[in-house]
Amino acid sequence: MTAPMLQVDKLSAWYGAARILYDLSLEVGRGEVVALMGRNGAGKTTTMKAIMALIAARRGTVRFNGDDISRLKPFEIARRGLGFTPEDRRIFVDLTVMENLDIGRQPPRRFADGTAAPLWTPDRLFKLFPNLAEMPNRLGGRMSGGEQQMLTVARTLMGNPLLVLLDEPSEGVSPLIVEQMANTIVELKRDGLSILLSEQNIHFARLVSDRAYVLEKGQVQWNGAMAELEANQDVQRAYLTV
Ligand code: ATP
To answer: Ligand 1 in contact with 45 (CB < 6 A)?
Structure first.
């Protein structure tokens, strides 16, 4: 078996004196889509930020594409091909769609075994996101929330990542965009990309994910195949339904 693309071992994180994550371990295999699930405040965003070294107070080991990246800085981690799409979107509102994409551009990459990673160009992204293709010159600030969400994902892909952390891609966007986002994730998986996505909603997660980790209070409470989670009403009631 090949080593996982992402391997998080006993990750803990603190905001000031408040401990948020407790020895959290998870793995994402190559080409796998894994859901990080849990209610508001369970620690999903904190897990992603801690993986990206965006939280200073943390402990534990993060291995990515065969290397220990626990001591690297966020920009060094991004350069190795670990993409992060934050929940709060962060597109440049004064720049056009095309300019936003250009900012995300990074060199082509290879997996640890030497095979080439999927290579992205604006043309290829416009096929994946037809809405964006219709507005290459639109300013970021003049786009709808759903369009901005797609642009954020597209910009991350311009970095030719090997794995992407997607923080709540379905949050606050219309049902139509949610459906498009699910189709996009399935296509990215087909292309060989690995994805860790955070999600509160099992209806979205089940459309795209192979496996799930369910968090509460910064700890993994359950993990297993998505199909098992779908069938397990007890776990859903305890950790997911509001
Ligand atoms: P959401 O669905 O709201 O994004 P989440 O599962 O991603 O939820 P986190 O955002 O990781 O949860 O929050 C985990 C805990 O950390 C919560 O109790 C939250 O209040 C706390 N927290 C988050 N950000 C900070 C911060 N900057 N300073 C202090 N506490 C924080």
So the answer is: yes
